[in-house]
Write a structure and sequence with these properties.
single chain; 239 residues; alpha+beta; four-stranded antiparallel sheet; 15 strands; 26% strand
Length: 239
C-alpha cells in the first residue's frame, strides 16, 4: 500500500505537487470512486487507478531501449539542448527515468533508459562483464597491429590504462570495437592514442542485445523478457 500521490508521481511525468493538485481537483479515480486525498493508501497492483480519464498501468520500474540519433544529449535534462528524454513519448515518462551510461552527442545507436538505479549500475559496471559493440569510421587507414594493441589495453593520452578491448578491422577505415567499460569519450580517446580520429560512431549492441533494425532513429520501446535474457542482466524482482 502506497500513498496515491506517490504512485501517480512514480508512474507519470507529474511531480508530487502536480499529483496532489490533480487529486484535489477530483481528476483521479480509485476503483471508480473519486480519490479522497493525496494521502489515500492504495494497492497499485490490486486497485484500478484512473487519472485524467486514462488508466494507470502500474509498473514498479520502467525499462526502455532507444535508438539514439545524432545531435541529442545522453542526459536527463538540459536547459539549452535536446536530450534523449525529450524523445520519450509522454506515456513512458516518469520521475527518475534516466539513460544507462552515455553516448556522445553525435554518437548513434542503442541506449537503455530506466528508473531502476541498481539495474543501470549492473549494466554499466565493468565487473558485470556486459560488453558494448560499436561500428567505427576513422579518418585514416587502420594498421594491422591495432587489434593486438587494443587487446593488450590501450593507454590514453592522460596515462589511463583501458581494459582489454576487441577490435575487428572491417575495411581500410572501418572497424568493430567491443569494450566492457565506459570511460568518458573512451573509443575516441583510444583511437586518438594510436593516431586516428573517429568520424562516426554507432553502438550496435549491449551484451547480446542488438539494436532492432526496425526501431527507427529517435524511437523507443519497452524491453521484453527476451531482451533481458540477451543482456544477461535482469531486474532484481525478476531473478
Amino acid at each position: 500500500m502506497e500513498r496515491l500521490d506517490k504512485i501517480l508521481a512514480s508512474q507519470t511525468s507529474l511531480s508530487r505537487t502536480e499529483a496532489k493538485r490533480a487529486i484535489h481537483l477530483g481528476q483521479v479515480l480509485v476503483d471508480g470512486q473519486v480519490a479522497s486525498s493525496p494521502e489515500q493508501k492504495v494497492d497499485p497492483m490490486a486497485q484500478k487507478i484512473i487519472a485524467f480519464g486514462k488508466p494507470i498501468a502500474y509498473q514498479k520500474h520502467l525499462y526502455l531501449m532507444l535508438h539514439k540519433p545524432a545531435g541529442v544529449l545522453s542526459a536527463s535534462r538540459d536547459s539549452r539542448q535536446k536530450t534523449v528524454l525529450d524523445l520519450v513519448p509522454d506515456h513512458f515518462r516518469r520521475a527518475g527515468l534516466a539513460p544507462v551510461g552515455r553516448l556522445d552527442k553525435n554518437t548513434t545507436g542503442l541506449l537503455l533508459l530506466t528508473d531502476d538505479g541498481d539495474f543501470a549500475h549492473r549494466i554499466i559496471s565493468p565487473k558485470s562483464g556486459v560488453t558494448k559493440i560499436y561500428d567505427v569510421a576513422l579518418d585514416a587507414d587502420l594498421k594491422p597491429d591495432l587489434p593486438e594493441r587494443f587487446l593488450a589495453g590501450v593507454t590514453l593520452a592522460d596515462g589511463t590504462k583501458c581494459l582489454p578491448a576487441k577490435l575487428d578491422i572491417t575495411g581500410p577505415r572501418t572497424a568493430l570495437v567491443e569494450i566492457c567499460e565506459g570511460k568518458y569519450h573512451q573509443i575516441k580517446r583510444m583511437f586518438g592514442a594510436v593516431g586516428l580520429g573517429v568520424e562516426s560512431l554507432h553502438r550496435r549492441s549491449i551484451g547480446g542485445l542488438l539494436l532492432p533494425p526496425d526501431l527507427a532513429a529517435g524511437a523507443c520501446r519497452m524491453l521484453k523478457e527476451e531482451d533481458f535474457s540477451a543482456l544477461g542482466v535482469f531486474p532484481n524482482d525478476c531473478q
